[in-house]
Amino acid sequence: MNLNAVASIYRFEMARFFRTVLQSIVSPIVSTSLYFVVFGSAIGSRIDTVEGIAYGAFIVPGLVMLSVMTQATSNASFGIYFPKFIGTIYELLSAPVNFLEITLGYVGAAATKALFIGTVILLTANLFVDLPVAHPVAMVAFLMLTCLSFALLGFIIGIWAQNFEQLQLIPLLIITPLVFLGGSFYSITMLPPVWQTITYFNPVVYLISGFRWAFFDQADVAVGISLGAIGLFTLICMTVIWWIFRTGWRIRQ
Amino acid sequence: MAAIVSVQNLTKSYEGGFTALDDVSLDIEEGEIIALLGPNGAGKTTLISTICGITVPTSGHILVGGHDTITDFRAARQLIGLVPQEINLEPFEKVRNAVRFSRGLFGLGRDDAHIDKVLAQLSLSDKAGNQIKTLSGGMKRRVLIAKALSHEPRVLFLDEPSAGVDVELRKDMWQVVADLKKQGVTIILTTHYIEEAEAIADRIAVINKGQILLVEDKEKLMERMGRKTLRIELTEPLERIPESLSSWDLELAPDGRALIYHYDSQSDSTGITRLLAAVRDAGLQLRDLQTRQSSLEEIFVGLVHGEDDAA
Ligand SMILES: Nc1ncnc2c1ncn2[C@@H]1O[C@H](COP(=O)(O)OP(=O)(O)OP(=O)(O)O)[C@@H](O)[C@H]1O
Ligand SMILES: [Mg+2]
What we know:
Chain A is mainly α. Chain A has eleven helices and two strands. Chain A is 79% helix and 2% strand. In chain B, helix 3 packs parallel to helix 5.
């Protein structure tokens, strides 16, 4: 295992993040605050509680998930797409590193950034609402697993993408809708039965439900199923990445 | 002596089906400088990329330091430093960090003394803290070299190191190459400047259309193929070559003031003495004599064109 290489990639990626650290902190704070103004105050004042939880607090897990998923995906996809775009990938391909080390470096860095942003949002939310955490360990575990699995997904997208449009496409057309329709801002039990059934095909539902359970001890789906779903998703992403490096798909001619 | 790089029956076809390398075999000795010469699209970059692991061979084997580049890629790549043809650098990164990154990527621990030494060797010390985008093109190329040297490779590939580099810098770079050779580093370079190959290479390989046409010691190559030219300058210009000299294979210079004679300096009889006697007998007055050895460039053009004609 070439640990120096993993550390080098990780550090290099984090340096990119820290070059724009102010922007990285400020933008989630601003957008979270906006969500609270719009959903928490304007709409929330009419909704009051969902399943006995103050609406302002109820939306926090979904909000965090929304940012964490998009950040993990876009950071990881950009991280590996950029070297392809400017040609510096030659160095990765000619270095004594294997797929696991490259993935660990890029995905690790992207997951760290997403985790950082998730934490900033949680802290910001804490200023607006009272936020109980029923299962702290599970909360951290869900958060980290989500960062990791979506960074893996982003890594795949970054390798697949052949231009900047494709890079934006999946986050925009798939992740954001899935998160919005995955019960970020409402409970699935509020939907008509047909839509409830359809919703169960949305993988994000399991993540948000599990994450929300960690806060409020209430879930739309059983926690075990949530964990299983995210574990399965992570496994699928890893398998795809392994296959990509084995065949050199879109990276090695 | 065992070859440090051994390319065995290497064929590379790109996805579209284009065959860029066609059954190439080449052994590179440890410590030598070998120049790959060939026109645009000959397959030089493809050959280097395949040895370094950037492209995958379609068939054939490559050993670097005895390690197969596919099955034992870590050990093989550990020995290699690569300076690519294109200037591929992350624009916002600082020079020193970029070089440090390369060293880490090759699994070596941080060693700022070595990095500083490499930067100094390439006259980049005063730019170490600058963002790469603020450097000139020639400096960027030297950053690429610094990155390749950061992990102390035993084999260095330089793909057109002097493209976009001014004459003085090119000389500096030749010096760097000479120093590396002294340290025992094997150097494989591609170039379009034949003077560069002439100046620094020990051996020359000529490649065209994915095939190696010739690999030979530079000196021997120039001797073996080196035709010499004798230029006989005349006091009075001629309209055409006199009848009495028609049996000689002579050319008249465009201004009519010189006769040009090609001969092989290696042959037993060059014919020069008899030619000069014949020139005198024809009543021509000599002003001066010059001989010239044909350059590698002429040899190279001859080879590549000869191949085109045969095809
Ligand atoms: N990725 C690729 N896909 C398809 N064909 C390619 C690819 N890369 C190179 N080729 C083709 O392979 C041939 C050899 O290219 P290569 O870059 O090895 O030439 P070269 O000798 O380095 O030329 P130059 O002196 O211009 O750098 C060319 O015909 C080129 O078009
Ligand atoms: Mg080339």
